[in-house]
Structure formats: structure tokens, C-alpha cells
């Protein structure tokens, strides 16, 4: 067997023995890291689940293209067909509101009926209501409005940007908050592993001293501690995934009624397995990094 593989195998075995030698301390440390990791993981699940349904809330991302008053129905239909043809990939829905229908709807409202009754002609234009889909709606809606305004017989393009900017601001805030939370959790994990490895190094002080006297290298001495940090954090990451998976069931039950009130189906789901695998590996590497830092500082004796 390759000597390097044999050394890693020995270090891994030493790590497991040390973990099982102090089961209560090991479980308590893993539990603390698990709870810390579960919070950003739950936030990531919520954010990733929200993104596909954000555009299907009650406040749909709409733009209204107002035609000139003298535009005919054929010219309005031509503009609507051009929008469908040129921007098919960006449009969720498109409908045309005829000027006569718009006037009838206003007259049905008592607040406007008396004022409209004295008008000799219909002052309202035809309108084309376009529902967008996808992401980055604010910038895209402004770009589309600038294009459509230049078309023949188009008088005005109104962008319902207030809710778009509000929605994207909420998502940006959620991403920033999640990033900040991830940084805080990373620091907490570093501190927990650093302290655990420090306690282990001090407890193994005599053993490390004897190993150095018989010729053990620094890598040989430190390797079990690196495995200790990596194994503890990997176990905590897996436990955090399991904990979040369990917590999502009651959360989804509570969210079901709220989602139905918006006319949609929404449920929180864990990210895809590739993302979760990267999460476990990243946390394990973070634990190994913290362990190396700790053992370097606390085995200089």
C-alpha cells in the first residue's frame, strides 16, 4: 500500500477513535454546527423556491401599450402581432383592450359615469396589455418600452415598474441577507472547530510531544486534527440537510393555504443534489481549514 495512503488511513482511524472516545462532547459540537448550518440552508431553500413563482403572484408583471386615438383596430392588431412575433420568448400573455370596451367599463363605474356622459366622443385609445415572464424585469421592461414607443401608431407605453422594482428589491435584500447570514455561520463554524481542535490538541499534548521525539513530522501530527474538523463539519452538514428536510413538511403545510389565496401552488424544496453535495464538501473544507489554523497555533510546545 502507498505510504501516503496508509498515513491518511491511520489519521482517519485516529480521528474516529477520538470522536467515539468523547461521544457527548463530539455530538454536542456537531449539534451546534448543525443548527448553525440549518439556518442559511433553510433560507437558501426558500429563496430558490421563490424565484420560479415570483412572476406568478397576483401582481403580474404587465406593460400597457396605448395606441393613438386615431389608430384603427387593424393597426392595433398589427402592433399586437408584431409584439408576439418579435418578443415571443419574453412574453407570458398578451391581450387587447378595445377603446369601446374600456369606455363601457368606465361608464359602469358611478364615479366616472356622469363625467363621461357629457363627452361627445370616446377619448380612450385601444390598449395592448403585455404580461412579461422571466427575471430582471425592471431593466427588460424599460428596454421594451423604448423599442415599442418608436412603432407607428403607438402613443405611449406604460410600465408598471413600481411593483417590479419592489419585488426585485425584496429578492436582492433576501440574497444579501442570506449572504450575510452565510458569512456569520461560516465564522461560527470556524470558531467552533477552532475551539474543539484546540481542546483536543491540549488534551493530546503529551502524545504529540512523544511522537515528535520519535521523529513524527508536523504533517503526521496535524493530519488527524484536520480530519477531525472535516469529519465533524461534514457530519453536521449532512445532519443540517436532514433537519431542514424534516422542517420543510410543517412549513409547506402552513404555506399551502397562503399560496392558494394567490392562485398558485408553492412549496419549499431543498436545492438540487449537486448544490447539496457542494454544500457538504464546502463545509468540510471549511472545517479542515479551521482545524489547520487551530492546530498550527496550539501545538507549538
From TrEMBL:
<feature type="transmembrane region" description="Helical">
    <location>
        <begin position="173"/>
        <end position="197"/>
    </location>
</feature>
<protein>
    <recommendedName>
        <fullName>Cell division protein FtsX</fullName>
    </recommendedName>
</protein>
<comment type="function">
    <text>Part of the ABC transporter FtsEX involved in cellular division.</text>
</comment>
<dbReference type="GO" id="GO:0032153">
    <property type="term" value="C:cell division site"/>
</dbReference>
<keyword id="KW-1133">Transmembrane helix</keyword>
<feature type="transmembrane region" description="Helical">
    <location>
        <begin position="27"/>
        <end position="48"/>
    </location>
</feature>
<keyword id="KW-0997">Cell inner membrane</keyword>
<keyword id="KW-0812">Transmembrane</keyword>
<feature type="transmembrane region" description="Helical">
    <location>
        <begin position="225"/>
        <end position="248"/>
    </location>
</feature>
<dbReference type="GO" id="GO:0005886">
    <property type="term" value="C:plasma membrane"/>
</dbReference>
<dbReference type="GO" id="GO:0051301">
    <property type="term" value="P:cell division"/>
</dbReference>
<dbReference type="InterPro" id="IPR003838">
    <property type="entry name" value="ABC3_permease_C"/>
</dbReference>
<keyword id="KW-0472">Membrane</keyword>
<keyword id="KW-0131">Cell cycle</keyword>
<dbReference type="Pfam" id="PF02687">
    <property type="entry name" value="FtsX"/>
</dbReference>
<comment type="similarity">
    <text>Belongs to the ABC-4 integral membrane protein family. FtsX subfamily.</text>
</comment>
<keyword id="KW-1003">Cell membrane</keyword>
<dbReference type="InterPro" id="IPR004513">
    <property type="entry name" value="FtsX"/>
</dbReference>
<feature type="transmembrane region" description="Helical">
    <location>
        <begin position="275"/>
        <end position="295"/>
    </location>
</feature>
<feature type="domain" description="FtsX extracellular">
    <location>
        <begin position="62"/>
        <end position="155"/>
    </location>
</feature>
<feature type="domain" description="ABC3 transporter permease C-terminal">
    <location>
        <begin position="180"/>
        <end position="289"/>
    </location>
</feature>
<dbReference type="Pfam" id="PF18075">
    <property type="entry name" value="FtsX_ECD"/>
</dbReference>
<keyword id="KW-0132">Cell division</keyword>
<dbReference type="InterPro" id="IPR040690">
    <property type="entry name" value="FtsX_ECD"/>
</dbReference>
Amino acid at each position: 500500500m502507498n505510504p501516503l495512503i496508509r498515513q491518511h488511513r491511520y489519521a482517519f482511524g485516529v480521528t474516529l477513535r477520538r470522536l467515539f472516545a468523547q461521544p457527548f462532547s463530539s455530538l454536542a459540537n456537531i449539534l451546534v454546527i448543525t443548527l448553525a448550518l440549518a439556518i442559511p440552508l433553510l433560507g437558501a431553500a426558500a429563496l430558490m423556491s421563490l424565484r420560479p413563482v415570483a412572476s406568478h403572484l397576483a401582481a403580474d408583471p404587465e406593460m400597457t401599450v396605448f395606441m393613438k386615438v386615431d389608430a384603427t383596430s387593424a393597426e392595433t392588431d398589427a402592433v399586437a402581432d408584431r409584439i408576439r412575433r418579435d418578443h415571443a420568448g419574453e412574453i407570458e400573455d398578451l391581450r387587447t383592450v378595445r377603446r369601446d370596451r374600456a369606455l363601457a367599463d368606465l361608464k359602469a363605474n358611478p364615479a366616472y359615469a356622469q363625467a363621461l356622459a357629457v363627452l361627445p366622443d370616446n377619448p380612450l385609445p385601444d390598449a395592448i396589455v403585455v404580461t412579461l415572464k422571466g427575471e430582471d424585469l425592471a431593466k427588460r421592461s424599460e428596454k421594451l418600452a423604448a423599442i415599442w414607443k418608436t412603432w407607428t401608431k403607438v402613443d405611449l407605453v406604460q410600465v408598471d415598474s413600481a411593483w417590479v422594482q419592489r419585488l426585485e428589491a425584496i429578492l436582492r435584500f433576501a440574497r444579501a441577507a442570506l449572504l450575510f447570514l452565510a458569512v456569520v455561520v461560516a465564522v461560527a463554524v470556524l470558531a467552533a472547530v477552532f475551539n474543539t481542535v484546540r481542546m483536543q490538541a491540549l488534551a493530546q499534548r503529551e502524545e504529540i510531544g512523544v511522537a515528535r521525539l520519535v521523529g513524527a513530522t508536523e504533517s503526521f501530527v496535524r493530519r488527524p486534527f484536520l480530519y477531525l474538523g472535516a469529519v465533524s463539519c461534514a457530519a453536521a452538514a449532512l445532519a443540517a440537510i436532514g433537519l431542514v428536510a424534516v422542517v420543510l413538511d410543517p412549513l409547506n403545510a402552513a404555506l399551502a393555504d397562503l399560496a392558494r389565496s394567490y392562485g398558485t401552488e408553492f412549496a419549499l424544496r431543498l436545492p438540487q443534489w449537486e448544490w447539496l453535495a457542494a454544500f457538504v464538501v464546502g463545509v468540510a473544507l471549511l472545517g479542515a481549514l479551521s482545524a489547520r489554523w487551530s492546530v498550527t497555533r496550539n501545538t507549538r510546545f
